[in-house]
Specification:
Layout: E1 2-7, H1 9-14, H2 16-28, E2 32-37, H3 43-49, E3 56-58, H4 63-71, E4 76-77, H5 80-86, H6 89-98, E5 115-119, E6 128-131, H7 134-143, E7 149-153, E8 160-167, E9 170-178, E10 192-195, H8 200-213, E11 217-224, E12 230-236, H9 242-247, H10 252-262
Parallel strand pairs: 1-2, 1-3, 3-4
Antiparallel strand pairs: 5-6, 5-7, 8-9, 8-11, 9-10, 11-12
Helix pairs in contact: 2-10, 4-5
Length: 264
């Protein structure tokens, strides 16, 4: 059986060890998983050459690529709806809110500071700014004038958030991340991580969101408040797993390939 995993070339380099593990896990399931770079790929020509692959795994942020693959009748991981939602922070918040999941509010207007401004399609903690006054806010509004942005109140978390990984309808792990001299808590920006045990309510909310999305593999980030409550902040697709590898002994590639093959 053949399958394909799509990456931009730079992202593939950054994730080369994950890709290697995933290709090897696929072989153990009798799947020939081939890496394809999308940078200069003509997706229509690529699809025309495919002969009923088991799946195509879109590890890019291109919803248009995912949509074309799905329209060709090929199983796409994740579905275009998931990829589109995860790469638009406004859509993410609105969708989760519609399910009754606590979310970071979106501001229609600024009445008090500090506030957080972010582009809706940024990732990795990039294109997020904390503004203490109108002058700072104006600076970022001008900087990102040609980008869709959203405004949110600053929520005091002492730079603490949670990242949960979900494969199919299984939560495979969750970590608490604490930032280092930055209100953002992305692990790649420094700081500390530790395993986190989800409450029953938190587990139910994650599974409710996954069921609504019908996702194959996503990450979900929540702000963790000092009183123990949480607010959904972002959904990640593609999602990184550096902190998962740091803290868990589970074979992530094996888990993913078991899901992708056995769920067909």
């Amino acid at each position: 059986m053949k399958a394909y995993i799509l990456y931009e070339e730079q992202d593939a380099f950054n994730n080369r060890f994950f890709i290697k593990d995933t290709v090897e896990a696929a072989k153990r399931k009798d799947v020939d998983l081939k890496l394809i770079f999308v940078d200069d790929l003509d997706i229509d020509s690529f699809l025309a050459l495919l002969d009923n692959p088991l799946f195509v795994w879109n590890r890019t942020r291109s919803t248009s690529i995912a949509s074309k693959i799905q329209s060709a009748g090929i199983r796409i991981v994740n579905k275009p709806f998931v990829n589109d939602l995860a790469n638009n922070k406004r859509k993410t918040i609105e969708f989760a809110y519609s399910l009754g999941i606590p979310t970071v509010p979106i501001l229609d207007e600024v009445r008090d500071f500090p506030v957080v401004i972010k582009t809706v399609d940024g990732h990795g903690g990039d294109e997020v700014a904390l503004c203490q006054n109108a002058e700072q806010l104006s600076h970022y509004e001008k900087k990102w004038h040609d980008r869709a942005t959203l405004l949110q109140p600053y929520i005091e978390t002492y730079a603490t958030d949670l990242r949960a990984w979900i494969v199919g309808d299984q939560i495979i792990g969750c970590v608490k991340r604490v930032g280092n001299d930055d209100f953002r808590s992305n692990y790649t920006r420094g700081g500390s991580i530790e395993k986190y045990s989800l409450s029953e309510t938190q587990t139910q909310q994650i599974l409710l969101l996954q069921k609504a999305l019908q996702s194959d593999y996503i990450g979900i980030d929540f702000l963790l408040l000092p009183n123990g409550d949480w607010m959904l902040n972002e959904i990640e697709d593609p999602v990184g797993a550096r902190s998962f590898y740091e803290l868990f002994n589970d074979d992530l590639a094996e888990i993913l390939m078991n899901h992708l093959v056995d769920s067909i």
